[in-house]
Amino acid sequence: MKISLNPGPILKKFSYGSRVQPARDWFYLLVAMTVLVALSIGWNLWLLRSVEKGGTIGDENATVESFDEAPIESVRAVFEERRAEQLRYRQEYRFVDPSL
Question: Contact 36/30 with Cβ under 8 angstroms?
Answer without folding.
Answer: no
